[in-house]
Amino acid sequence: MSKPIPSHAQVVIIGGGIHGCSVAYHLAKEGWKDIVLLERKQLTCGTTWHAAGLVGQLQGSHATTAFAKYGVELLEEIEAQTGQNPGYRRSGSISVAINDERLAELKRKADFASLFGIEASYLSTPEIAERWPLMNPEGVLGGIYMPSDGSANPIDLTNALAKGTRMHGAQIFEHVKVEAVEVEGGRVRAVQTEQGRITADVVVNCGGMWARELGRQNGVGVPLHACEHYYLVTEPIADLPSDLPVLRSYCDGTYWKEDAGKLLFGFAHFHPKAWGMDGIPESFCFDSLPFVEEDVMDVLELAMNRVPVLQDVGIRTFFNGPESYSHDGRFTLGEAPDVKGYYILAGVNSTGIQSGSGAGRALAQWIMRGHPPMDLSEMDPKRCEEFQTRDPYLRERCAETLVLTYAMHWPGRQRESVRNLRRTPFYHAMKARGACYAEVQGWERPGWFAPKGVAPQYDYSFGRPSWFPHAQAEQKAAREAVALFDYSMLGKLMVEGKDAEAFLQRVCTNDMALPVGRVAYTLMLNERGGIESDVTVARHAKDAFMVMSSISSTRRDYLHLRDALRPGEEVRLRDATAAYGVLSIAGPKSRDLLAAVADTDVSNAAFPFNSLQHFHIGHAPVFAQRLSYTGELGWEVFVTPDFAEHVFDVLMEAGQSFGLRLAGGEALNALRIEKGFLHWGHDMAYSDAPHQMGLGFACKPNKGTTFVGRDAYLDRKAANEGPFLCFIKLADPAPMLHHNEPVVRNGSVAGYVTAGAWSNAQGAAVGLCLLYPPTELSGRQALMDGQYSVLVEGRKISAEISLAPFYDPANARMLA
Fold first, then answer.
1. CA dihedral 101, 105, 106, 109 (to 10 degrees)
2. Region 720-816: CATH code
3. Domain segments of the chain as ranges
4. Domain spanning 491-578 has what CATH number?
5. Regarding beta strands 171-173 and 35-38, do their DSSP bridges make them parallel or antiparallel, or are they unpaired?
6. Is 34 helix (H, G, I), strand (E, B) or coil?
7. 775-794: per-residue pLDDT in tens?
8. Which of these, 63, 4, 12, lies nearest to 39 by C-alpha position?
């Protein structure tokens, strides 16, 4: 007779794959004994069992690489802890390139590995052929070898985690289906199963491809969809070396590993298929899907060319199994925004075996500590808009994620599916003038503008793409004349009511006792003194403020403000993002342009920096705030959608006399980087403190109201620990900086570039970077001691470090 389920648990985990077992194992290992894991059928029976089991440490971000690095550490020790062999083989891996751009990408990945102490080295084609004699070396330009990579047995690893979970006192129940998660007062209360009800303080959704439907029952968005995923296993191959490294040929869309005397080879798909559109069959357990040769024939031909022995050996296993992919290629990991105590770990894009152990540990630490153990903002469930969790969107977007898995990971690569969802009032007018659109959170945003005769279409490069000179001309216009940017998609959150000022004083670091018509830049901190967001706040009336957020943080900022409200506070929150079009006018001639069209005095005395005024442009009522994200003199003009094109036309006509040029996000990013302006989620996150980012000027600890995180901020400021944000410029004008390039001081890695771009004004690539000082107690000033360089595609490029921005550090231009 099976053991009955308990009536209560501190934590109930739903799903018995690699993720659920990892969360349970790490909670139990830390002493949380009252843990229950529920699996609808058998452990691993959904997706985990048929994973290829590749273990590659180097992933696409700091967090996922940290997950994978820990995963290898656990693989090396878990058998000693549990007696269960996880089937780990440290065979190494080789990734090959058959074109120059892929080789550049691989070299950048090897550079990135140095940030984590992961060994990665360049191999020539003959060296690769020596280690992988079955490979056809034709067209291979070289590759990267990582000796600490390998493979594991997915079922054995998961069973080892499950065994460890039980050894530490937690319980696992198979053949128990969760029918519902009960929520009361915005908090989880229990799970209802076929065998009874379990009350719980915390519920963790590790339901794999079922996680989306499970979450939807409680209004919890889990942006993933199952897609078909193929691999093949050959018949035994005579004299096949058992120590073959895993081989990846991204350009061929294929990977290979030795598998008990056979070759297992899998595919990145050129023609992906979403699966389970009508729901997943109730009977699904260790199941596979029909194998359709036409779906993989083009990749199979590439595979047989790269490894010719496949042309002569039979295929023993044709396998097609569903795996979950997310809409943006990132995990969903963290607490649900609308249900306290409801946590999610799902949508890991076919990296569950290599990342599952680390991701499970991170979520367990989050549950135990009450906050993330590291910067996991890229995975935050709060990042998703409602439309991004609906099936029609996910079927297309998640399938594209599968296609892009082995595609080039270009800087700034744009998605092609599910586009043109959200358009600003200036969309058509700007498109008619050559706008090439990028997409953020469904918003179409001009990336750059094509001159006549040039197609407004993105192409990509780690060097200089074809549109590079057009974006440079836009930078030049902003620095020397005047440029016009569409800011309409930036978040506009209204905070209104009798207690609005007192509320903002509590959640914001700057002084929010602003006069009507004034604007302030401020941070919002958490209780640990970390930066939850940076925003501008404008006071529109005694009881009305507008909080302006970045595009990708609008929903997150709204939820942060909502969750900070106290019972009885008379405060109303309202998202007014779509209520206004916004045009940013930036450049030394912006005052001349605005004066030519506005019925108000725009002199510095009458319209100072950080102020707000209402007036008319042409026949349209507008209001504008004098702010700058470019470092130039400038204004942000707000207009209702009905008058938007009229205002645009007036500005464009008048701007001809002042050299006005339309500009996009590519130019804006370079301008803000050389001016030293930060972007939350790229250059800082909730793990970083203001003193590290040079943002102490926005913190007013003596303003009379104790803001959230004040004491922790002061403690962290006094401790003065790094890393610290600095500014960097390459001595050589040829290389490009994008993101995550390691910064080397006196021969040792000291930090990395958080954001980079090529600056027209500086004549070189510039960046923001996070650097650790030589010793823990030496502080930010000590960073100036030493010789610096940046690793760019395996080369050390000499660099200059500065504690002040390279462009106009005294702010004379934007305050003029």
1. 170
2. 2.40.30.110
3. 1-384, 491-578, 581-656, 720-816
4. 3.30.70.1400
5. parallel
6. coil
7. 866 889 999 999 999 999 99
8. 12
